[in-house]
Amino acid sequence: MKLLSLFIVLILTTNSFAQVTKVGSDTLYDIAGWNVEWLGNTSNGPTNETLQYNNVKTVLTNTDMDVWGLAEVCDATLFSNLLTDIPTYSGTLSTFSQTQKTALLWKKNMFTLISYANINDASQSDFYNAFAGRYPLEVVLATKDSLTKDTLYFYTIHLKANSGSADQASYDRRKNAADYLKTWLEKNRAGKKILVLGDWNDDVDQSVVKIGNYLVTPFEQFKSDTAKYFFPSLRLSLNNETSYPNYNPPNMIDHQMTSRQLSDSFYVKNSSGVMKQLKTQISSFLNNTSDHYPVYAQYNLKRYTKPENNDTIIPIDTTHTGTNSFEAVSNLSVYPNPTVGKLYLMNLPNDIEKIQLTSIIGDVVEIINVEPNTNIIQIPERLANGIYMLTCKTKNKSYRNRIVLNR
């Protein structure tokens, strides 16, 4: 009887997974943000960690988005496992100290990683407090399609939550965070194709905070600057959609914002949406998976300006950021991978100065100074099994590949 019950449970679980349907398009760039509610934290959020993980994995796999910005990823090992279990995606996890971390996942066949970092403007003394310690995660990706080669700047954010419907203090912190982010973007990323995803913890048409009347949105500085910014999710707010159905009255608190360089030519009009179908596709979704619905929008990067009398497509922006530009993964061949510790490196230039190992959450865990013409390295015994980024640096460039340590 116990085996029969287990068999029935497996059938029901498998069927519920299979019901999650595709949302992404095969011809467009599908970008989504989702708060996965304390994923990997045993003290908060859904109580069945295994079920939540499997449901999240199924949503990411079956909906077939090209990029995911995630909030509230609480376990680095679990995030590493997620990348292993969904091999079509690569990803990075924020490195700030708060338990609720942000992440970005992208399809390997569509994007190449250029750089990633936590954004912290040291000139703003209140920056940490405004963002509740959860610094914006910047991930810069280059598209791989030769006809639409471009550079996109992704920012995953998770702003300060409310402690009540009249929480002026949290409202002020969100407003300050938006001010600081806007200042930083316009100083450092002016003219770039920017997408800001995540849990904004407030709405864009008007605030969720009510002190007498509802306050103006704390993101008015972005909303009103229509020459530079656009919210694909604003139409969802105006249509009384909700990304957080447990909130009363319903509001959109998860948003997507783009720079005009991206939205004017490439955003597919009225393509933004809320994946509220998940409530019926996964039984008890709001209790066992997340109390937020994913929010998405679609872009067509083939809409490039063409010169007169010439059919050649012009790439708009292929600028790399940072002091080093990352070569394609194929430029660094590693064998064996997975490895028990000893690695052979092929196809490297002779002027490698340093080899660096970085954990999946972005921490540098080992730096190896090398002799000329080195092609063998030994990973220290003290490092735990898992996924690492191996970076070989010259004076001007970095060559990298993802390795799996499995002793």
Briefly characterize the structure:
The chain has helices at 2-18, 49-63, 76-85, 127-130, 168-188, 220-223, 234-238, 260-266, 278-281, 285-288; strands at 29-39, 67-73, 89-93, 101-107, 111-118, 137-143, 151-158, 193-199, 210-211, 213-214, 229-230, 254-259, 273-274, 295-299, 325-326, 333-335, 342-346, 354-359, 364-369, 376-378, 386-393, 397-405. The protein has 407 residues and is of the alpha+beta class.
Provide structural commentary.
With 407 residues, the protein is of the alpha+beta class. Helix content is 22%, strand content 30%. The protein has two domains: 2-299, Deoxyribonuclease I, Chain A; 325-405, Immunoglobulin-like. It is built from ten helices and 22 strands. The strands form five sheets. The protein has a six-stranded mixed sheet, sandwiched between helices. It is globular, with a radius of gyration of 22 Å. It starts with a helix and ends with a strand. 39% of the residues are buried. Residues 1-17 and 304-330 have low confidence and may be disordered.
